Amino acid sequence: MKLEKTLTTFTTALFILSFNLNAAEVTDQSAACTQALNQGDYAKAIVISSAMLKTNAENRDGLLCQGRALGGQGHYAEALNALEQSLKQAKSGFDQIISHLLMGNLLKENKKNAEALASYEKSMNVAKQEKNDKFTRINHNLIGEVYADTKDFNAALTSYLAGEKLAYNDNERADNFERIASTYSALARHDEAIEYQVKAILMQRKSGTLDQYANASLEMGRIYIAAKELQNAEKTYTKLVQFSQENGGAYYEIKANMGLAQTKLAMGDAATAKTFLIDAQKMAKSLGEADLIAEIDDLLKN
Questions:
Q1: Which has the closest alpha carbon to 254: 225, 276, 221?
Q2: Which of 10, 60, 109, 220 is deepest in the core (most CB within 10 A)?
Q3: Does the domain made of 229-302 have the CATH classification 1.10.3680?
Q4: What is the mean pLDDT of residues 76-82?
Q5: How far is CA 64 from CA 13, 48, 88, in A?
Q6: What are the residue ranges spanned by the domains of the chain?
Q7: Does residue 7 register a pLDDT over 60?
Q8: What are the contacts of 235-244 at 24+ separation with CB within 8 A?
């Protein structure tokens, strides 16, 4: 398998809507609207959902799709109204879970943190009533994200730890281990951060994708640097360089070299750090990775 750069942004909303719409009774329009959302084609999703709602103004799938599409376009008030209308059309506890959760996502994206927390809590309460551990866990993690965004790391940690208890498989455990490790690191509780990130790497090595394992390794190196365990950071990044070379992952080789540069700089070896950055810069230019090139240029200036 070739290791490639992937987007790793947390996309719960995409998964949830697909989960909800891809049932046996799904209509062609619903499937098309979901596909447009997944591709980021919000204008197309608006056209499709508008057609659905023209046929039936109370079509819940149409309201959900339109709400998300409007949110993607930055039309907050209209998006929230559509999602609120979808809640009124909920026919089951699961329907309520999804509507509350998607409203929480919209509110979170628009920095309305208190309201987002309230929506996630409502979603989680219904999930608990429905004995739906999967969405109880998802809501715990989303609540944790809001707290982390507002720098309330102790509250975030509580949410992530609660979510970890409901993890169903190695992938879900790895996800929560990484969240917990990052939060411990933010709290400068470095021993716990290292413990949980090691657990995450073990899970990703066992059940994750190559990208997930590589990203977990990058974070492991960062956590070691924060903990001032520079020898371990160097070993982690060096191992990732080898892993990337063996699996065709030039993007992660660049990131690992950047990590090695930061490690050497923390060790006081600025000359070697610059060498790693120059090598990384050459690779980034050969790949045409504009974001990495800009990041490396900034590091070289400093």
A1: 276
A2: 220
A3: no
A4: 97
A5: 11, 12, 11
A6: 229-302
A7: no
A8: 237/263, 240/214, 243/213, 243/214, 243/217, 244/3, 244/214
